[in-house]
Design a protein that fits this description.
40% of the residues lie in helices and 16% in strands. By secondary structure, the protein is an alpha/beta fold. Strand 5, helix 6 and strand 6 form a beta-alpha-beta unit. The longest helix is centred in the first third of the chain and has 21 residues. The termini are far apart. The structure holds nicotinamide-adenine-dinucleotide and UDP-4-deoxy-4-formamido-beta-L-arabinopyranose. The site of nicotinamide-adenine-dinucleotide has 28 residues, from helix 1, helix 5, strand 5 and strand 7.
Length: 343
């Protein structure tokens, strides 16, 4: 069989490394490009160990046109999954230029080479952040996007727009934007997972680091939201399920099954979970007590969001299969594997 080759940009990162594993399991060849600005080569090694595949790794910046030109000249890619971006919301507020430069130029650099080298299938990492605080829940793909609350969120909206315009202008080009909800958990092998740098901003790495004794106490940001228990509600999606959504998207693009040149899918479970519910589930699943306290609300947080993932089910044939407890078990297993190494 003619094996298809997928370029995974940002493939040494959290979502990219798990996606590389699932692509290889599905029979694709994978090449990873990453500048290691927020990751470690050990993730690529983890992908190799899990899959037993060689997995070529190119250390390069997607904003570097010369490096991208050489990469695309080196072999033919049937599709690209573009993860490479900086993702810390707070940092994007203090360093907007770096965020716009990196996240926009990396997409433009890759898309430019795709055009030059006749590669016309791309999956893009978008985010539920494009919905902001939605009027109706759950959000569907037709829920209007809200003006972005951060430069990071704005880069996701602009990148979606770039791909919509590029597919309109170039008939052969097909793009799928996956709007992820909140990815959590790690690979069950314990060989790859999330490597947060410094103090984690996201809930689950903070929870696991607190359970491991690396942080004193988890602050629950607000218990006075208009939700059943007063804490915020999110849609936590298991990382392996999320990785498999990319395989489904690539397959759709390569089989020519896309219904439109540019498509968008929500990738979530369809279930809203509160912060306090997540803490309880973590404690029960892993049989431990977590130190936590109620703290003031965090600026910029929305009250609640969860996905209507039915379009992904009918069109991509994908749905989340892992439970919250499954994800919190692998997240804790990964934290124990990391020990005090927090990167
Ligand atoms: P991550 O930081 O673990 O992975 C991103 C990878 O891209 C890193 O390995 C980083 O070194 C690399 N990178 C960044 N800029 C680059 C560049 N210019 N050239 C080459 N490599 C570059 O983050 P992640 O959680 O795996 O996120 C992957 C994608 O998914 C990002 O686009 C992110 O915005 C998006 N996303 C993430 C979440 C989340 O909560 N993790 C939610 C929605 C969307
Ligand atoms: C989840 C919940 C917090 C930390 C962010 C980005 C979003 C997307 C996903 C990329 C919230 C609460 C958190 C803590 C807490 N990323 N919390 N104590 O804010 O939903 O989304 O990641 O696209 O764009 O904004 O995720 O994990 O930070 O927070 O109580 O120490 O946990 O208030 O309700 P968030 P998160």
């Amino acid at each position: 069989m003619d094996r298809k080759c997928i370029l995974v940009t940002g493939g040494a990162g959290y979502i990219g490394s798990h996606t590389a594993v699932e692509l290889i399991a599905a029979g694709y060849d994978v090449v990873i490009v990453d500048n290691l600005s927020n990751s470690d080569p050990s993730a690529v090694e983890g992908v190799r160990r899990i899959t037993g595949a060689e997995v070529p790794f190119v250390e390069a910046d997607c904003c570097d046109d010369g490096a991208m030109e050489r990469l695309f000249r080196s072999r033919r890619f049937d599709a690209v999954i573009h993860f490479a971006a900086a993702k810390a919301v707070g940092e994007s507020v203090s360093e907007p230029l770096r965020y716009y430069r990196n996240n926009l130029l990396s997409l433009l650099g890759v898309a430019g080479q795709m055009e030059r080298h006749g590669c016309d299938r791309i999956v893009f990492s978008s985010s539920c952040t494009v919905y902001g605080e939605a009027d109706e829940l759950p959000v569907t793909e037709r829920t209007p996007r809200r003006p972005a609350a951060s430069p990071y969120g704005n880069t996701k909206q602009i990148c979606e727009d770039i791909l919509r315009d590029a597919t309109a202008a170039r008939p052969a080009l097909r793009a799928i934007a996956l709007r992820y909800f909140n990815p959590i958990g790690a690979h069950p092998s314990g060989l790859i997972g999330e490597l947060p740098r410094g103090v984690p901003q996201n809930l689950v790495p903070y929870v696991t680091q607190t359970a491991a004794g690396l942080r004193e106490c988890l602050s629950v940001f607000g218990d006075d939201y208009p939700t059943p228990d007063g804490s915020c509600i999110r849609d936590y999606i298991d990382i392996v399920d999320l990785a498999r959504a990319h395989v489904a998207a690539v397959r759709r693009l390569l089989e020519g099954a896309a219904a439109a040149p540019f498509e968008v899918f929500n990738i979530g479970t369809g279930r809203g979970v509160s912060v306090l519910e997540l803490i309880r589930c973590f404690e029960q699943t892993n049989r431990l007590k977590l130190a936590w306290r109620i703290a003031p609300r965090r600026a910029g947080d929305i009250t609640a969001i969860w996905a209507d993932p039915s379009l992904a089910r009918t069109e991509l044939g994908w749905q989340a299969e892992r439970s919250l407890a499954d994800s919190l078990a692998t997240a804790w297993q990964w934290q124990q594997r990391l020990g005090s190494g927090t990167k």
